[in-house]
Amino acid sequence: MNDQDLTLPHPDPTLHNADLEPLAPGKRKWGWFEIFNVWSNDIQSLFGYTLAATLFISYGLNGWAVLAGIVLAGFIVMGLVQLTGKPSVKYGIPFPVMARASMGVRGANFPAMVRGIVAIFWYGVQTYFASTAVALLIRTLTGPGSEATLLGLTTVDWIAYVLVCAFQVALFVRGVDWVTRFLNWAGPLVYLVMIAMMIAICYKAGPSLAGALGGIFSGTGSYAGGPVAAFAAVVGTMVAYFAAVVINYGDFARFVKTERQMRIGNFLGLPVSLAFFSLIALVITAGTVVVFGETLTNPTDIVARIDHVGLTLIAAITFFAATVGINLVANFIPPAYDIANLSPARISARTGGFITAAIAFFIGALWVSFISSVGIAAFVDTLGAVLAPLYGIIVADYYLVRHQRLDVQQLFSAEPGSTYYFNAGWNRKAIIAFGIASIFSVASVWTPGLESLSGFAWLLGALFGAVLHYLLMRKQILPVSATPTATSQL
Q1: Cβ-based burial of 224 (10 A; exposed 0-12, middle 13-18, buried ≥19)
Q2: Which DSSP helix (H) or strand (E) runs through 153?
Q3: 152 Cβ partners below 8 Å, 6+ apart?
Q4: What phi and psi values does residue 149 have, to the nearest 5 degrees?
Q5: How far apart are the first and last CA of the chain?
Q6: 3-class SS at 315?
Q7: Which of 90, 172, 89, 131 is nearest to 320 (CA)?
Q8: Across 399-484, where does the E strand assignment appear?
Q9: How many helices (H) and strands (E) does the chain have?
Q10: CB atoms within 10 A of CB 266
Q11: Which end of the chain is more exposed for a tag (fewer CB within 10 A), N or C?
């Protein structure tokens, strides 16, 4: 399958444990359907729906233009993850190990921790959104309960939040196979519920729905940079939404049997699924204006207003399942690996998961009272801007510096003079590239005068990081003939 020996006869114990070692082809069980469901559940999460609905009403664009921008973002993300997924399919290694090639065997701890911190933030936020579905379920069965709040959450909200936190940890402890099964039934079921909710809204709205759609499609409002900048902002914000998954996509791609299966799953799960889901979100968002007299962007709020107990129960369960599924795959498992990478001999991925859950608990609990006040678009763009340069550095290093060849043995070696040892295990040039590029990408989100760049801060940050890394490393670029060519023993 590969042209590189993936066996590790004498790995450095400070760089290796069973969770980080290359996954042999015989242990890879995922096909296109599993990859499709990773993306479908990410799109179908409650936060994903809220973001898509918000884009339709926030930029003053024609609804078709917003839909086109979202689909274009799907194609862009598909291309981006093909680049980060390919080496992990080839070598069976997770993101923290892949990062060692560009950042150094010790320096890889830095991008792993940056990615881990961002994922922990996402994990806490998505946990809160999943808990809103559980809270809806509880209120449907038992009544509203007390309206007294603590940090913006009622007693029912807190009960739901704690239940979701505990459920996610329990599912994570059961292992990746259980998480995969969870995704495989949750993804398709959510689409059925979304279609049912769309039909219910259309029925209640009646002929007036056409006028509401026309209002959204007319492009009311304005955007400071004009329609072109608004379109770019929509595309950039959607790309930034997937940024956390894009950079560590190798954590999932390593489970896929073949690169072809990965490509098929990416196509169906990104542009195709994103177009279908966003169109449904558009119709439902327009319908809420007619039926309820206001624009609702959270599916749990919409289901609660429909006043149909059966649909409410089914929708609450399935939205909870979709949000929890992608939260585990995209925001729980990656930081668990990242934290384990800090000290593989002492910290397993399971222990890393417990640390992740503990920190994220407080982040999710503060979403209503504090974090949400930043604004969803700014929140997404900022997290994406931090990660963007790391993506550019890792991709530029693998394709332009390494010519798509890695020495797997050396990725687990901390011997001075080894291939990825650099300076005491750190590639200072990569760190410099990250520092400069990340300052620019984050500044483009928050600096007055650069507002027109905020929507596509992720793309600019990734490009800037890639260019800087390539320029700094150009004297160390290996000729193709000098790259490793060991024969696989697998």
Answers
A1: exposed
A2: strand 153-154
A3: 368, 369
A4: -125, 155
A5: 8
A6: helix
A7: 131
A8: none
A9: 22, 2
A10: 26
A11: C
Contacts with 52 (C-beta within 8 Å, 6 or more apart), sequence order:
43, 70, 277, 278, 281
Distance CA 443, CA 448 (A): 9
Q: Is there a contact between 255 and 29 (Cβ–Cβ < 8 Å)?
A: yes
Task: Give the max Cα distance, the chain.
Answer: 73
Tokens 């015989």 belong to: 26
The rounded distance, in Å, linking the Cα atoms of 473 and 398 is 12
Tell whether the torsion through CA atoms of 344, 345, 348 and 353 is positive or negative: negative
478-487: b or e for each residue (b if 16 or more CB lie within 10 Å)? eeeeeebeee
Q: Nearest to residue 242, comparing CAs of 58, 380, 89?
A: 380
Task: Identify the three-state secondary structure at position 177.
Answer: helix
Over 60: is that where the pLDDT of 54 sits? yes
Tokens 């980060």, located at residue: 84
Q: Across the strands, what pairs with 30? A: 256
Q: Which of 67, 88, 82 is nearest to 265 (CA)?
A: 82
The answer to whether residue 453 scores a pLDDT higher than 70 is no
Task: Find, among 470, 216, 436, 165, the residue nearest to 324 by Cα.
Answer: 165
| pLDDT single digits (tens) 275-313 | 888 888 888 878 877 877 777 777 767 777 766 677 777
Looking at residue 366, its amino acid is: L
Read off φ and ψ for residue 202, nearest 5 degrees.
-60, -40
* C-alpha dihedral sign at 124, 127, 131, 133: positive
Q: Which of 105, 92, 95, 431 is nearest to 245 (CA)?
A: 95
**pLDDT value of position 2:** 46
Asked if residues 197 and 419 have their Cβ atoms less than 8 Å apart, the reply is no
Distance CA 93, CA 72 (A): 29
CA distances (Å), 470 to each of 22, 230, 416, 454, in order?
27, 31, 24, 25
- Say which residues have a Cβ less than 8 Å from residue 486's Cβ, sequence separation at least 6: 3, 4, 5, 407
Cα-trace Rg, the chain: 23
Nearest to 444 by CA among 434, 433, 452: 452
* SS3 state of residue 426: strand
Contact 384, 453 (CB under 8 A): no
- Please say whether the dihedral angle defined by the alpha carbons of residues 273, 279, 282 and 285, taken in this order, is positive or negative: negative
User: For the chain, what's the residue count?
Assistant: 490
Rounded Cα–Cα distance for residues 122 and 360 (Å): 8
Which residues on adjacent β-strands are paired with residue 423?
426
Asked if 410 contacts 418 with a C-beta cutoff of 8 angstroms, the reply is yes
pTM score, two decimals?
0.79
